[in-house]
Structure formats: C-alpha cells, structure tokens
Amino acid sequence: MQFESFSEFLAMGGYGFYVWLSFGSCALILLGILFGSLLDSKRLKQQVQAQIVREERIKKAKQEAQA
User: Fold this and answer.
1) How far apart are CA 25 and CA 20, in angstroms?
2) What is the pLDDT of residues 17-48, one digit of tens each?
3) CB atoms < 10 A from the CB of 19, how many?
C-alpha cells in the first residue's frame, strides 16, 4: 500500500487511530516489562549480596565462639 502524503500514512486509510493506538500500547507494555525486569534483577542482586554478607558474619561469629 502506497501513500500519497505523510498525513495519509498517519491516517492509515481511516484506521490510523486504532493502528497507532495498538503500536503505542504495545510499546508501553514492552517498556514496562523491560524496566520491571531490570528493577527485579537489581533487587535480586542486592538480596544475594546481603545474604552473602549475612552468611560471612554468621561464620565469623561461630569461629569466634569456638576460639
């Protein structure tokens, strides 16, 4: 399908509102998934680091108690 002008391209033969709305909502959903995944990954790494520090502290306390 060829368009005579940019405004015809945006109008998409009368279906432009629905076409661009679907593209926009899809882009927003994908961005939401991306940012949510990045935040979850960051939070998980912080929790793992905190667990490692906790385990080292417990291990050190047990060694001091035995000495």
Assistant:
1) 8
2) 999 999 999 999 999 999 999 999 999 999 99
3) 13
Q: Are 10 and 16 in contact (CB under 8 A)?
A: yes
For residue 23, give the nearest of 42, 9, 41 by alpha carbon.
9
Write down the pTM of the prediction.
Answer: 0.70
> Do residues 52 and 60 touch, judged by C-beta distance below 8 A?
no
- Cα–Cα distance measured from residue 45 to residue 43, given in angstroms and rounded to the nearest whole number: 5
Radius of gyration in angstroms for the set of CA atoms belonging to the chain, rounded to a whole number: 27
